[in-house]
Specification:
heterodimer; A: 113 residues; seven-stranded mixed sheet; B: 112 residues; five-stranded mixed sheet; 9 strands
Chain lengths: 113, 112
């Protein structure tokens, strides 16, 4: 069956610009997670959705980062006024519930020039 | 969060067994041991998890020490496709702890 998909696969943007990263979870998965992975490091948690609401956004680095999941399915991670330090691979994962194994998408590689 | 310690890298030959160790001396009684792996240019992939007893699935086996302070992921016959970073993660499946806390993992190289 279809796994988690993320678009775009690559995004190059200039410093100061706004970007949106999209995640399509596995159908029926109620839990959705965003992680960020810098080169040579393991993924770091950003935000968790249970249904439409953000149950935990404690991993978002600052208020330039925001994520939504308006209908409890697709989620969008939004980054305002991008900085070079935001360059990383942004990973999305979904699961059937918060205590179950997470299924990851291939990630979006964001490069801020 | 309880922490895990893994070797930075390991090497194996194709079709030989691989034992990937993980130390978690501060594990609590309610922590599950999860393993994920990440192939090059892909997102992490769930491998296996366990609490106290050894576990087997189609991908691997998980051997958990009796005192639960360490565990070993066993790939019975390594293939070139098993070359990846392997992450050992403690996961408290009760309460509100649902996020995975990744370390740097073990980079497994498989030689043909």
């Amino acid at each position: 069956g279809a796994g988690v998909s993320q678009t775009p696969s690559n995004k190059v943007t200039e410093k100061g610009k706004y970007v949106e990263l999209r995640c399509d979870p596995i159908s029926g998965h109620t839990a959705l997670y965003w992680y960020r992975q810098s080169l040579g490091q393991g993924p770091e948690f950003l935000i968790y959705f249970q249904g439409t609401g953000a149950a935990d956004d404690s991993g978002l680095p600052n208020d330039r980062f925001f994520a939504v999941r308006p209908e409890g399915s697709v989620s969008t991670l939004k980054i305002q006024r991008t900085e070079r330090g935001d360059s990383a691979v942004y990973l999305c994962a979904s699961s059937t519930g918060r205590n179950y194994e997470q299924y990851f998408g291939p990630g979006t590689r964001l490069t801020v020039t | 969060d309880a922490k895990t310690t893994q070797p930075n890298s390991m090497e194996s030959n194709e079709e030989e067994p691989v034992h990937l160790p993980c130390n978690h001396s501060t594990i609590s009684g309610t922590d599950y041991i999860h393993w994920y792996r990440q192939l090059p240019s892909q997102g992490p992939e769930y491998v296996i998890h366990g609490l106290t007893s050894n576990v087997n699935n189609r991908m691997a086996s998980l051997a958990i020490a009796e005192d639960r302070k360490s565990s070993t992921l066993i790939l019975h016959r390594a293939t070139l496709r098993d070359a990846a970073v392997y992450y050992c993660i403690l996961f408290y499946s009760g309460g509100s702890n649902y996020k995975l806390t990744f370390g740097k993992g073990t980079l497994l190289t498989v030689n043909p």
